[in-house]
Design a protein that fits this description.
2 domains; five-stranded mixed sheet; Immunoglobulin-like; 1 helix; globular
Amino acid sequence: MKLFNLKSALLGAATACLLSICAGRAMAETDLMVFPTRVVMNDKQRTAQIDVINTSAMKASYKISLVRKRMTETGTIEDISAPDPTEKFADELVKYSPRQVTLLPGGGQTIRMIFKLPADLADGEYRSHLVFTKMASGISDLAEKESPNPTAVSMKVTVNVGISIPVIARHGNLEAQAAIDPASVKITVVEPKQQLVDFILARSGTRSVYGDVAVFRGEDKVAVGSGFAVYTPNGQRKIGVHVLEPYQLKSGEKIRLQFTEKEAKKPLAETTITLP
């Protein structure tokens, strides 16, 4: 009985340790290329497709699911345990196929999506996230094997790697406004010679915003950042963009910040401040 308990304890400790190490690497080690990385459908454009490619040297299978997630004010995407009444989700409106793919090395597959539009659907933006999860047991070969040492435990750990992309379905005449809070703009140093321009981007209206950030000192573009979103129902997001080398910003200098939506010609939000 004591031997069994000891072996169980060793097994549990080893499992926890290995899973902790592997979890932090999961997103960085995915071998699935997904394009595009964001899907937007509306009343006029109700279909979309996503192409996936296996970039590894081994055959791999992926389960595809449409799940509910939310964005925090720092831009982190997290699972939802309890939906907020103001959140609208696309998983009941968007149909897709296939729901599982097996890809040879270098092989690809197209995922087709359609936005089903119920007659009584309320105007608004509906969003869920399409998740691709590599199909492999989280822990395999966990059984104890024959060994001269009765306290030895042998195991093999395999991590289920997953990536997700937002799927947005818009119904009705939606609009959005954005503003950069001038009081929130500040310069922080993340490395001895690396500066960061931090600020808060505010969003209002009936749809999310998604675009790029540029910071100017005079005519010089001194900092840039790409692909920032503020999803409904969030009202703001904290953003930081790195100052480009060899530029360095100093107190008393005047800078101009712009947020421009993808494929737009004019900034949706802009502000000019003197650095404190």
